[in-house]
Write a structure and sequence with these properties.
The chain is of the alpha+beta class. The protein has a single domain (25-115), classed as Nucleic acid-binding proteins (OB fold (Dihydrolipoamide Acetyltransferase, E2P)), CATH 2.40.50. The protein has helices spanning 2-20, 79-90; strands at residues 28-30, 33-45, 53-59, 64-69, 96-104, 107-115. A hairpin with a 7-residue loop joins strand 2 and strand 3 (53-59). It is globular, with a radius of gyration of 19 Å.
């Protein structure tokens, strides 16, 4: 009897997971970092006025992710951040990008950014 109950429970869990799944492409995680691939929807560069740089990316499976570099004001940029910023200023809406960074409450804080 317990085998039947266990099988029914497992089948119920599988059905529940299938019914609740969404077709949204989640960023993949590696070593505490996330990787995001998609198309640039918007670029906001407020670094000339001591703000941050932000890139909104439309994900392949739907949804959107915010990529950002924090303000350099009071925090000189690292070589890594300078390279990322150089890519940001060369981007245009519609470009395809691959980004890697740390997921925060504001979006993904960029460590690497590559135009595909």
């Amino acid at each position: 009897m317990w085998k039947i109950v266990t099988c029914l429970f497992c089948a119920g869990v599988l059905v529940a997971q299938a019914g609740c799944s969404e077709e949204v492409a989640e960023p993949s995680q590696r070593d505490g970092l996330v990787t995001v691939i998609g198309n640039v929807a918007r670029i906001v560069d407020d670094t000339p006025v001591d703000g941050n740089a932000r890139v909104d990316v439309d994900l392949d499976g739907g949804g959107q992710e915010i990529l950002y570099l924090p303000s350099f004001f009071g925090n000189p940029p690292t070589e890594e951040e300078k390279k990322v910023y150089q890519v940001i200023i060369e981007l245009e809406v519609g470009d395809r990008v691959e980004a890697m960074g740390k997921k925060t409450e504001y979006g993904v804080k960029l460590k690497r950014l590559k135009k595909l």
